[in-house]
Amino acid sequence: MLKWALIFFILSIVFGFFGFTGAARFSKGVAKFLVVLFVIMLLLAILFIVLAAMAVY
C-alpha cells in the first residue's frame, strides 16, 4: 500500500509541475502531434496488410 502512495505522490509532483509552469500547453501540442503521427502509421499499416493479403490470394 505504501508503494502505491509513493507512486501517486510522485505523479502528483510531476503533474503539478506541468500545471503550474505552463508546460502542459507544450505537452498538449506534442500529444496532438503524436496522435496524428500514430494514426497515419496505423492507416498505412492497415493499407499494407490489405495489399499484401490481396497479393497472396
From TrEMBL:
Matches recorded under InterPro entries: DUF1328
Record's protein name: Uncharacterized protein
Transmembrane residue ranges: 6-26, 33-56
Keywords: Cell membrane, Membrane, Transmembrane, Transmembrane helix
GO cellular component, one term: plasma membrane
